[in-house]
């Protein structure tokens, strides 16, 4: 009987630990120096299942790094910016508008200081103004700065919001994955 109690106790604690891990929440905090993307996603204030979902979305997006830019295209042979974001999110069941200007309405708007990996970020196009002309997916957040993957004129690549071109053209962000 004593052996069964030990076995039951171990199983009970293992199940309790697994349940608390799966249902636990972490507090949101911004990226710290040296913290990997995986660690940053793990520390974001979201459910474990959502963290895993965002990680899968970003892993999938990075598979296309280096694919050429192709205006009006949304396929692995070439992407434009909104074609890339809509293609990546569609794989996970999210149907985004085909234009960057329309995609800002496909999620809940978030302030720059609330960004987290997986959010969509929007920029003016080549001509500065009030019209959205470019979109990317946040990969890392560093205070008010962030990295994002997108279809640039040179192809799918990761860029930084501190680059002068993007810093001057930032317009807003939205969260598709809650």
Alpha plus pi helix count = 6
* Spatial shape: globular
* Sheet of most strands: 6 strands, antiparallel
Percent strand: 15-25%
Q: Can you tell me the residue ranges where pLDDT is under 50 for at least 5 consecutive residues?
A: 7-34
The beta-strand count equals 8
Q: Helices and strands: which structural class?
A: alpha+beta
Cross-sheet strand order for the largest sheet: 3-8-4-5-6-7
Integer-rounded radius of gyration: 19 Å
CA-to-CA gap between the ends? 48 Å
**What is the H-and-E element order?**
HHHEEHHEEEEEHE
Query: Fraction of residues in helices?
Result: 25-40%
Please describe the topology of this protein.
Layout: H1 2-23, H2 37-43, H3 48-62, E1 74-75, E2 78-79, H4 81-90, H5 100-103, E3 108-110, E4 120-124, E5 132-142, E6 145-152, E7 155-160, H6 164-167, E8 170-175
């Amino acid at each position: 009987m004593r052996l069964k109690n030990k076995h039951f106790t171990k199983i009970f604690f293992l199940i309790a630990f697994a349940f608390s891990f799966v249902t636990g929440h972490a507090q949101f905090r911004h990226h710290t120096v040296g913290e990997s993307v995986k660690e940053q996603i793990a520390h974001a204030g979201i459910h474990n299942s959502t963290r895993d979902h965002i990680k899968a979305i970003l892993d999938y997006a990075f598979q296309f790094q280096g694919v050429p830019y192709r205006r009006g295209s949304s396929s692995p042979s070439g992407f434009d910016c909104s074609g890339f974001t809509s293609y990546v999110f569609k794989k996970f069941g999210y149907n985004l508008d085909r234009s960057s200007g329309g995609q800002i309405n496909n999620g809940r708007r978030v302030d720059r200081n609330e960004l987290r990996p997986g959010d969509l970020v929007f920029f003016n196009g080549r001509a500065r103004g009030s019209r959205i002309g470019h979109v990317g997916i946040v990969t890392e957040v560093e205070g008010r700065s962030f990295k994002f993957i997108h279809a640039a004129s040179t192809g799918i690549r990761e860029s930084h919001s501190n680059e002068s071109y993007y810093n001057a053209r930032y317009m807003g962000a939205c969260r598709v994955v809650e």
